[in-house]
Amino acid sequence: MSSPTGSRGQKMRLPIFTQKGLLEVQSPTEKDWSKDDEENYVFKDPAQELDSLPQPYRMINKLVSLLFDRSWDIIQERNRLREAELSRIQPTIYSPVFKSEFSKTPNCMAIAQDYVFIGGAKGFSIYSLYDAKRIYVWDKLKVDVTSIWATDLGSEILIAPVDEMGIVRLFYLCKDGLFFIKTINEMDDTNRQTTLVKMEISHGGDFAAFLLQGAGETWLDVYKLPKESWLKEVENPQLTTNPKKKVRQPQLNTLDPVTLDNLETDINICFKGDIKLSLPIYIMKIKPPKPITGTTFKSPLEVFAKIEGYYGLGSGQNHFIKDSQWEQQATIFNATYKKYLDGEWEEEPLSVATFHFLLPSCITTMPAEAKIPSGVACVLGIHWTGRHNFFLYSLNRTSKDKVDPEGVWPCAAPIAVSQLSPCCSYLVLACEDGVLTLWDLAEDASLHLVAAKGTQGPTISVLVERPVKHPDEAICAVAPVPALPGMVLLFSRNGSMHLLDVAKSQVICAFAPPRPQHLVVAWKPVFAVSSHHPYFLLRDETKATTKASDTPNSVFYFHFDAYPLLENISRNCTISQADLTEATAFAHMLPLEKRCENFLWKRLQEVETKVREQEHRARLRRYSLLLQRENRK
Predict the structure, then answer these.
(1) Residue 134 and residue 150 in contact, taking contact as beta carbons nearer than 8 Å
(2) 553-577 burial, b for 16+ CB within 10 Å, e for fewer?
(3) What gap in Å lies between CA 109 and CA 529, rounded to an integer?
(4) In sequence order, what are the residues at sequence separation of 6 or more whose Cβ sits closer than 8 angstroms to the Cβ of residue 633?
(5) What is the pLDDT of residues 276-299, one digit of tens each?
(6) Angle value at C-alpha 219, between 196 and 354, nearest 5 degrees
(7) Domain ranges in the chain?
(8) Which of 207, 236, 258, 521 has its CA 20 to 30 A from that of 377?
(9) How far is the CA of 233 from the CAs of 180, 226, 236, 570, in angstroms?
(10) Helix (H) or strand (E) run with residue 102 in it
(11) pTM for the full model?
(12) What is the DSSP letter of 289?
């Protein structure tokens, strides 16, 4: 019989009886045993004998035992994971259908219509979405392009590349010509140079907003884009130089040999730098809200009598606090938190804005005389870091108008994140205290609870749990797939890519490049998903991390329809058509009679409300003046 062993293969050591003195042979009968000898027997564990070892052997023994225990725990964990991996059903893995190779690592990419725009060294390139063939290269910069936007304007495309200096330029792609429009923030004086922090172009390309930073300040410049004028000017071009002078096309021999080898298709796009297009129309400049300060008004009656605008009253804006009250509150605050205020103060970072272009709705009030075409943005919504309010600015103004918000939405806590749905129907405001507010902009402006349905209480379902023991499997990016309703792409830190069915919380398949990727710890995938075609593009990370000279730079094209498992997934969509209609509902999807009825009813309510507000304000102002006269008497 084998000796008993422990859970880690060690032999079990049974306790034994040991005697302090010499062991004498006892007589056969129990009555002759000595009672004093029982005190000389002690119950001892053999493991305790190691504690009596001298130093440093006792310490060495403990370190070896601890190392062995930890090693055994790691071995058991690996065996458990290996067994779980073998028992788990592995998804089907697909490789890209084709790829594009580059001489240098591409920095950014965007998709619009049938084109792919890739920013890189000293400019950007235009590729075909269907065969990954390069069509044109614009490389006239001295620095690299770090980010690029491409907006579909119908039959045209607006391109906005941003270089390493933070300078943004606007290009117009129409038919077979690429036109330069304007450099937004380039200055002749380098000391006054501003950099771009964020930018946003409205749905349809009617407006553009640029968040700029420079000289210790941050502000938002808003422009109106003359799309109709651009189209007419392209059809009837006006040359900036002599019309008889031949337009010089970019010389292909200036490109590097590796890039020339990739030009396997005829260039059908040319840069027309001599044709002048209308410049964007400057609308307004929005600065961060000023800190609250004291007022010189002596009484509330004087406030109501002299104030002209009443926007934002009761929402945290237009505070009127006396200087003495403000100084008293500052004294109390400094006395209460004196021990925390004595230390060194770090310089407060510049405030950053998040902004969205909103379409006409019942909660974005506009003047009655304003004529806004259907589907054109009318309001710019913006919130600043560390602020409680969401501001609404009308886009129906000129640069001479006073820049004041037409509406203010107050929140109980500072707004941390905001997001507008692709259909511009829903706006989500997430505050720092964890409150999530969903605004329905398209229908009745009701406040929804997340995952609430009918009379049931709100529920939150977890699609993918956060990995605790294996942080490399955590999700680092998520992108919806418009071509496959109800599907999202999940990018993990370890480089894996999965297609997830949201309705079933089930992984449909996985995607992988043809060769293993050597990823950094904080992997930020550079990818682009087409809004109208079943494509998504991924940058090859091998060259960006290893800097190997023999490895080409590539962008992988994944075509959903090219994989057998996804051929009929759009037909067998797990989300019902009613849910899709509700999720993407907007005013133009309703019947014409219903739209007219809702519009007239809402307009009537707005007029009645505005009349009542004006009457109430006029009465309040007259009453304030009357009380002031009585006080003088």
Answers:
(1) no
(2) bbbbbbbbebbeebeebeeebeeee
(3) 10
(4) none
(5) 899 999 999 999 987 766 666 667
(6) 75
(7) 16-87, 295-342, 351-452, 590-633
(8) 236
(9) 13, 11, 5, 41
(10) strand 98-102
(11) 0.65
(12) P
